[in-house]
Amino acid sequence: MKRNVLLGSCLAVVLGTAACQDQPTGPTNLAATRPAAPSMSSTALGRPDRGQLKLPAGAKAIGHRYCTELMPGAINPSDYECPASTAISDWWLNAALASYAAEPEIFELLYFDTFADALPTYDALIFRNESPSEYFGYNGEYTQVMLKTEKDARRFWDIRSDDIQLLGMHGTMLLDVERTAQVYAWYWEVSADSAAKAAAAIVDAMERSTTLNGGNHPLFSFNAFAFSTFGGPIPDKIVMGDGILAGYAALGFGDVAPQGVYMHEFAHHIQYENGYFEDEYATTGSAAEQTRYTELMADAMSAYFLTHKRGLALNEKRVAQFLEVFYQIGDCGFTSSGHHGTPNQRMAAAQFGFDLAKEALKQGQILTSEQVYQRFLAAYPSIIAPDAN
Q: Are 367 and 305 spatial neighbours (Cβ–Cβ below 8 Å)?
């Protein structure tokens, strides 16, 4: 098997249509959804197939969905103009291609041969638990804002949230042979010997690289996701990748992106806790329509908290500027089970949240999660109307 790549300008097209930014799922048998294991020998690593080079999809971290199913009904893409690329996907692509151009042999081993870019995700998801030394950002630059946002969200929302672990995802774990081998063995169910050989090759490549900064590179941590096993063996988690924080900071949103991304993921935990993944909209229609509904609800809840005077009280205009960029990822995956809604629909959901927060300026109250949900439910048809099929 072989992971293929399109070179040159074709890469931009592949990246521009990526979907499944951070799609959560219900209980999932993660082991059953792994790609086929790389073939190992005593002298070389195999080349497993992961398709064309594309923007990393957060959904893989949860249900390993590849977002390729045909799911009509959410919208007719011929009626909506999608961007060929977005600012954030271009940023990731440029970083990846710069490394590829400078060190093709190292890049091919890490990305095409060993899938090293996937390992930090599963390290955080499966093997790591929250610790006092947790940090966020390549150099811990977002640690304080993340911890404050977590504290404020727990205070604001009425769900049980003290059991949700907040973890950073770091590409630097690829310098640790034991951790890398552990994830590799679990991910593909290969022998300890094969996993150790792969880990040794990965660590050697990481140490030789002059462009990947010891793992502090978006190739390895451009992701954020919420996860719940609904009482299963893995704790509830929100994982924030260093790379996605770096990307939005590079675009000038370092002051609002950490809070915005975190709250979107926290909103999925509200849905988990209150059973909103089991309501009518979330269980009827195409998979694309079901996902769009839960994502737009998360957008609305996020905007409500971010701008509520007793939430984070961030400037609405500034939050909207960030969301306009944030909402471009995954929004044109019309046939995908990871479809998040069009940019118009997502901004309409955010405006719904802004308006709820404005009401609080007069009433000085915090709506319960159920009250926000019921109001969103009533408004949902009008939120999707601009670009509904």
A: no
